[in-house]
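Q: For a teaching session next week I want to show students how multiple molecules come together into a single three-dimensional assembly. I've collected the sequence lines for a complex. Could you give me the predicted structure tokens for the whole thing so I can convert them for display?
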Amino acid sequence: MNHNPTEKDLWFLPLGGTGEIGMNVNLYGHNNQWLMIDCGVTFNVPLDRDQDEAPAVTRHNMVTADISFIANRRDRLCGIVLTHAHEDHLGAVVSQWEQLQCPIYTTAFTAEVLRRKAHRGEIPVELPIRIVETGSIIDIGPFTIEWIPTTHSIPDANAILISTPVACVLHTGDWKIDANPVVGKGFNKKLFKQLASKNITAMMCDSTNANRAGHSLSEKDCEQGLGTLISKAKGRVVVTCFASNIGRLITLAKIAKASNRYLCLLGPALENMVSIAKRTGFWPEELKITPFRHIGYLPKHEVLIVATGSQGEPRAGLYKLALNTHRDCDLDAKDLVIFSSIVIPGNEKSVKRLTDLLKEREITVVESASCEQTIHASGHPNEGDLTQLFNWVKPKCIVPVHGEPKHLLACSQIGKATGIKYQLVGLNGDLYSLAPSFSIRRKLISAPRIAI
Ligand SMILES: [Zn+2]
Ligand SMILES: [Zn+2]
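A: Of course. Below is the structure for the complete assembly, covering every listed component.
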């Protein structure tokens, strides 16, 4: 086997994201052409996680996959498709642009996130982004690509159906089955049931939560828990969550309105994401936001702050509030800080440092992991969601991606238990053959990570 797929081949070559959570960079090869799906970043987790005194900032350095394999055959890279706007899926497009230089296809929300990123850098870049409608079918080189809407923790997430004359595969992107994602439409199972008639060869599937039993929670489930906590609070409430979770922000804006609190955003990432949601039609017009600079003039019990920094990032808004160094706001004892988020593995110590700072000042801290109420919902499928999707789509083969080895293994076992005949479990740098037959060539390329 050489490194050029023929017209009889369909290959899958993950450069990042398979064997880890983050940094998704995937290649598909057919008829001497390549297609990239997603190009993301991840946190650089220090090898020695026990080094307590390592400066916090090193934990938040970003890395991405070494893409020299495709950069060396750039004339055969026919396009990049982006499934959604999370950093682990598009965060490296701008920094790798010199090496990529090909058309980028994605839907409107994701396109706007990327366009703004490209304009923010030291040297603004004008990217050739082609905005597609969800549901569109477009030929990119020898690949026919269809965007199928899913539900996740960001608007406008899509699964990608890749059809070639030799095989048809479903690249799920990040997803869960959410009947009420708060923003956008609910999960449309009919679209996935229809795929069964297409004889899907393989499904590259999000494995993040494959070792969690049952079904994933709905984004809507957070409304009651957050509403209860906020309605009981007497002073200021600060909620920290991921800036791109527009559904969560809409929920908080509704709670603010219902509890007569002014909603203020702390952190440019939040302001940017809400502005993109407004521009692309995902933000309800009636939900108003009060400029943060007004906060000093507002009664404490009439304030709901949403802040960045749920991972303990030292430059983020919440860290400044914890240190009491923010010029417009000083929290008091008995104020409430809610972590409507999870701790990303590797960030445990920086989050602990942040919560310790808050608790030292007698600020009440509520974290999702130890809270009886539902105040966070993951965007990824549990065992129950995976079983349902496998039963609906009925692919011949499951290829677990978006997970550490234990997650990939759990996903493949669910596939097996569902009656899917083949499972291919590999890692970044392995070459998966999906046509003419199933096989994995291990370690075709080494898959190192590079700093951004
Ligand atoms: Zn995602
Ligand atoms: Zn992801």
